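Journal club prep, notes for RB
We'll compare a predicted complex against what the paper describes. Inputs for the uracil case:
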Amino acid sequence: MIPTELIRKKREGEELQPDELKFLVNGYVNDDIPDYQMAAFLMAVYFQGMSEAEMNEFTRLMLHSGTVIDLSFIPGVKVDKHSTGGVGDKVSIILAPLVAACGVPVPMISGRGLGHTGGTLDKLESIPGFRTDLDIDRYKKIIEKIGLVMIGQTKSIAPADKKLYALRDVTATVECIPLIAGSIMSKKLAEGIDALVLDVKTGSGAFMREKDRAVELAQALIGIGEAFGKRTIGFITDMNQPLGNAVGNWIEVEECIRCLKGESVPDLMEVTYRLAGAMLYLGEKAGSIEEGEKTARKKIGSGAAYGKFIELVREQGGDISFIENPSKYEKADVQEDVYLETEGYVRTIDNYNIGLAGLVSGAGRKKIVDSVDFTAGLIVHKKIGDSVNSREPVATVYGKDREGVQDAVRRVRKAYRLSNNEVDAPRCIYGMATKDGYTDYENGT
Ligand code: URA
């Protein structure tokens, strides 16, 4: 086959056949297709999209470019959750032990922070000693022993996606629904799961700012999951403000510990319980999502979810004394409250800038090689609808680097827009998508 012919075909909006996609993807992995031709193909996909058949085949090729983990020796329906990423999105750290405590095995392979968003791996690694770089044998042993494991992508999981993602990152082809869907699902399908719950975020701090695009992405992800025989449910959730109050690494883990011990952070726990309900439903431990939510609430109340988190930390090498006594964690060297000069009610928060404030405080990376300051980040005290005056801080920023903290303070200040009138808090969950369609909770469609 001739690469330029296939690029031209896609550029003209034609559908590629499985052997043609195989030639391109496998050729790229084996270095037979150079970066410049693959980049041209990706840009053609960016403009022309992919049919459902192309998307499934593209995912299959990336999935089978590496190891597909077999967890069939573990009894029960194995269920994972994937979030498209956000600011203060710490749900996995509460959800995974919670669902495992309810008897559904949770094999989870997570990522690091991307752009302005945080990543579960960086948060978990802020726990002294906690290892996420475990090999697949250890991954299997841990999930068999405690029904839960949380690691990072290994070299052998979907290597084609790894190479393609790096190319997309530098050729402005990341924000493309078929490419995102294939990339996410190739990694999730490699984990050994039987079913998947998706948390597709929308709003100013999400990659899919518009709700319609988030629904479109959810449907593409669900289509692929179901085509591979994995029951998949997706929720469209709000990312117009941080989820919970903490944005960072250790400070987010500390918020999770409080939630696992029963403290209610309302928006964070509403999303967590809904996702847990869906995971328990798909994991056949509840007859409905609502019933699953009730079970999950009881497992927080009984301390079982917290107990499962302790097991996870211990099993993956973490020092549980920091979980039992978070106040012994190293403190940030610099701490600064953020005040606004005006009064009113919080109308909007530019959550992208809050994410960037977290990043510049030291909690994220400006370059791949940067290390993360685990003590850095911010606590948001005022959320949409809250009243604000010039005497109460809207947020507190933490970090080691004074300049970074001051940059973050400026970004937080700029992110807030106030109103003179009372403002309603936004919905946390906008709707649910399944293979049968999308139900919007706002307008009942
Ligand atoms: N996350 C992924 O894993 N892949 C994408 O393409 C975008 C977000």
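Talking point for the session: The longest helix spans residues 211-227.
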